[in-house]
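Table 4 source record.
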Amino acid sequence: MPVPVLLVTGFLGAGKTTVVNHLLAHADGRRIAAVVNDFGAINIDAELIAGASDGVVSLANGCICCSLEGDLLRTLATLLRRDPKPDYIVIETSGVADPADIVRNLMDPVILREAPLETVLCVIDAGTPPSALDDALLRSQLRVADIVALSKLDLADAAAGTRMREAIRAQRVPAVVVEANHGEIPSALLFPANDGRASTPREVGPKRPAEERFETLSWTSDKPVSLPGLQQAISRLAPKLARAKGLFETVEQPGRMMVFQFAAGRATLAPGEAPPQGVPRTRIVFIAELGVLSKAELDGIMEGCVAGG
């Protein structure tokens, strides 16, 4: 029996991981295999974690999660050899990936027969300015989508969803637009009945040259940070950032780890778990367009928020 594939795309910080987390935590008896770029992005409730081996995290509800390392087709082949096989495979793309390239890979005749691409979901932050859809990458993410999910409606003003729906309609994409409050999307839309029928190949157009547009910069510290100092540092960096996320300890609350997320001009904090022994207490990853932010500038700004710095 073929295993249907759900491809989840969307720009940096759109809320893709929240959607995948919700799917895995509310599998309702389905065995779902999630292929993601970074285990650290997945935040499944602790009671669902059963163990890990060979790069695969097993979940107590019958689902599994693995990191996308190397060739996508090789990763899919590994999942399809598992016993029992998953009922569905969810692939979460990088926020800076053109999903058309992944769709093109999934159109490989062997993969199409064993793991047909059934649904492409594009997650969009409802608070994103409609003008952002002029970006070529976002347009590509929209054009391959069967479903567009508007996320973070609770963080946007009341009219944001309407404005974004109109902006999407102006792009003339055939996708169905739904709301995804806290990552929740009707499962019937995402998981069609697995009846064994062959999937229809998709037209994705000619392959375009890859464009290196973003770079990742990291900052670590073994010392706790001052929360007001960190807030000032992020305010200075915000105009240059596409995304940031990390884990840190503050001098105001020693011993308590916090998870930091920054996307679409908004920063959030949530409780976190202590890092393994030997790993810096503070680790933050920043994503910016190439050449916009230097490592020296980043270090200079971030060192100012270290307690005693």
